[in-house]
Design a protein that fits this description.
three-stranded antiparallel sheet, about 15% strand, Diverse_Enzym_Activities, Beta-lactam-related, Beta-lactamase-related domain-containing protein, about 30% helix, seven-stranded mixed sheet, Beta-lactam/transpept-like, alpha+beta, globular, Beta-lactamase, single chain
Length: about 350
């Protein structure tokens, strides 16, 4: 399936915002890709894949390290497994782990892992529980390790296998992959980072469990578009819509708590909070993921729009307010999308 292009300058403010953010971050390049009403309305690439003088220009097949945005694929695999009956949302995690020390898992379910309400935390190499499951929210790594393990244990397939078989191969994605980081190829960006950044990891494991996923702006936007269309790809219902609905609707166990709301790892807009990464202007029901490389994937069903921004900067520079920046990105996308509605574009 090929989407038609109907480029418009109505998203010029978003383009300016993205380029200014790249400059503040010290990224060597970036990209912006927006789909609205089943057409590509904005597509731009700027800068180079690294700061090297002979670096390749950022272009349509350039692949960026998407960091935590990879959770859109892990969340899909989890929803796939739930839909097909391999496990349920409220199954206790303890039944899947082989650990003699089970007390930290007490009360923790798959739902808690998917919504960051599990309370699990690694302290001095030991897994501990910081709060009773479902009573608070914390963005921490153990949930991803557990989810990818449980998905593989129950389905017999890794996250990478599931998304490749269900989506990547059927639609022909060529620029979406987990790569062996010891063997980079010419189309991936050099991820610019501070030498003392403790969060950077290097791995050659390509089963979907690691933070080594590289995707082009176009294919990340198309991944979002598949979700916007609730699993339809052209005229074909490629993925059961129930899988997408499960992944992108609020699954947080206590929606009344003043915490982030999540679907299957997606951040889902509910009400406005000062800590929300989705801007105040963006309507309820929208969903987004933001990576530590400042890559973002935003889907606004109310305006039939998908927006992707790509940078190659891991972390940020001093004085950069990432929360203010991502909120204003979303607000601008939404406000510009309203312009297209009123002008008939």
């Amino acid at each position: 399936m090929q989407l038609n292009h109907d480029y418009t300058n109505l998203f010029e403010d978003v383009h300016t915002h993205v380029k200014e953010s790249a400059e503040k971050l010290g990224a060597s390049g970036g990209a912006l890709f927006i789909i609205q009403n089943d057409k590509v309305v904005t597509e731009s690439y700027f800068g180079k894949q690294s700061h090297a003088s002979d670096a390749r220009e950022v272009q349509v097949d350039t692949q960026f390290h998407i960091a935590s945005v990879r959770k859109a694929y892990i969340g899909f695999a989890a929803a796939y497994a739930i839909y097909h009956g391999y496990f349920s949302m409220d199954d206790p995690v303890a039944q899947f782990v082989e650990d003699s020390h089970l007390s930290p898992y007490e009360g923790v379910t798959i739902r808690h892992l998917l919504t960051h309400t599990h309370g699990l935390h690694i302290v001095d190499g030991q897994l501990v529980s910081d709060f009773h499951p479902g009573e608070s929210w914390a963005y921490r790594g153990p949930s991803i390790d557990l989810l990818t393990m449980i998905i593989k244990k129950t389905t017999g397939k890794s996250v990478a296998d599931i998304v490749k078989d269900e989506v990547f191969d059927p639609v022909g994605f060529q620029s979406t992959e987990w790569i062996k980081m010891s063997q980079p190829h010419s189309k991936i960006t050099n991820t610019i980072r501070d030498s003392d950044n403790i969060y950077w990891t290097v791995t050659d494991v390509v089963d979907g469990s690691g933070m080594n996923m590289y995707v082009s702006a176009q294919e990340l936007a198309l991944w979002g578009y598949l979700h916007l269309k609730e699993g339809k790809w052209g005229d074909q219902q490629l993925i059961p819509k129930e899988i997408i609905q499960l992944a992108t609707s609020i699954q947080t166990p206590n929606p009344e708590l003043p915490i982030h709301k999540n679907g299957c790892l997606w951040f889902v807009k509910d009400t406005n909070h000062s800590f929300n990464q989705i801007g105040d202007a963006v309507p309820r029901g929208s969903y987004q993921l933001l990576g530590y490389t400042n890559v973002a994937l935003l889907v606004i069903p109310e305006e039939n729009i998908v927006a992707v921004r790509m940078f190659n900067r891991y972390g940020s520079s001093g004085g950069y307010d990432y929360l203010k920046d991502i909120r204003s990105f979303g607000d601008l996308v939404y406000k510009c999308s309203i312009k297209t509605s009123t002008t008939g574009v």
